Input
Amino acid sequence: MPSLRPSVIIVAHGSRASDSAQEAATQHATMLRQCNRYELVDVCFLAQDKSPPVLPEGKVFLFPFFMSNGYFVSSRIPELFELEVGKRIESRQQLYMCDPLGTDPELAAIIVTMAREICCDHQYMPKEVQLVLAAHGSEKSPASAKAAYLQQQAVKDRDDFADVFVAFLSQAPRLDEILSACHDDGKPVIVVGLFAADGPHAAEDVPGVISEWRQHARSGRSIHYAGAVGPRPEITDLIQQSISICAARVS
Output
């Protein structure tokens, strides 16, 4: 008989080259297991797993640990799990795909918390800070930009900072361009990475762009990088909320 408790599969990109790209999803899965609300909690890394994990009977919620509704969420996950319109219903097993992490408007609260922690550490008034949201971006798909601008608006609506910008690594406006465009009026700049994990983009590319910009711009402006949002412990609660919303939607 299928369990009355649902199961959860966190579906992430992962990496064959970087263990750090997998740590966040693995840690969130560990925290979900400890809450004892789910029959099974597992992680599937698309960069490694060519076939889906063995799934239990009953309801199974797939959580896309991605920052947008791009190729992996719209095509690769449905293909791997044989979903149609975000679900697969069989007599003893029902699969449902939640919304991806990066499109959750509640993510803005965690972004604000990250920036405010930098403000506290350096005794900045948030209203005197320019916030930059750094995302991957893509010249082939608008999904990454759409999700980033959604978070920008959600953060702006909270009215915490002097201004909120969006910058990308793989499309315009690029991060170095936005750093140059920030008002050079003494206001410090805080960069938050819209990345699900501490992979190469979050841990190397963004700090590298900031460092190179400092060398070439020769600006005395204070710039702080708060890191990637995905590894934050608050994300575990956001995943649970997303599962609950999806469960209510399909019940």
Q: What stands out?
A: The longest strand covers residues 58-64. Helices lie at 20-34, 71-81, 107-122, 143-158, 175-181, 200-217, 234-250. Residues 188 and 222 are 5 Å apart (CA to CA).
